[in-house]
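Re: the request from the purification team.
They wanted to know what the chain is likely to look like in 3D before they choose a buffer screen. I agreed to run a prediction and write the result into the notebook, where they can find it.
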Amino acid sequence: MTYQLRVNGEAVEVEAPGMRRLLDVLREDLGLTGTKEGCGEGECGACSVVVDGAVVDSCLVPLCQVEGASVSTVEGLADGEQLDVLQAAFLETGGAQCGICTPGMLLAGHAYLAALPSGQEADDETIREAIAGNLCRCTGYTKIVEAIALAADRRST
C-alpha cells in the first residue's frame, strides 16, 4: 500500500506494509539514518522523532498511523550547512558523546523549546522532564541539559 506523509517539510510517498515501523521507513526507505535504533521497545528514546508536534518513539509507530502526518527527524533541524541553535549548543557544551541518544535528545529538546512560551526561561527541572523519555549512558545528562538551556537563552535574545 502507498502512504503519503510530510517528512522534514517535504511530501513523500512510501510503498510499504502499513505495519512497517516508522523507524525502518525513515532509515531504510527514505535514507534518513540520523534516527537511531536503541532498544527497539520504546524504552530508550534513541529513535525519537516529532509527529504532528508530539515526540514519539518511531520504533513503536506503524507507518499506517502517520498517513498524512508531518514527521520531523534530526536531519530536518539544520538549514543546509547552518546548524540549528540547539545543535550548535550541543556541540559547544559537549552534550553529544557516543551519538546514539543524540538525535532523540535533539528532537525532544527541540520540541521542548518550540513549546516554551515566549519570555519564559528554561529551567533544569522542566528540561529534564522534557527529555525524560530519552536515555543517555555517556553524559549523565548535565551537558545535555546545559545545551538545551543555552539554546533557550539564545532563542530568547
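For the purification team: The CA atoms of residues 80 and 144 lie 23 Å apart.
Please add any questions underneath this entry.
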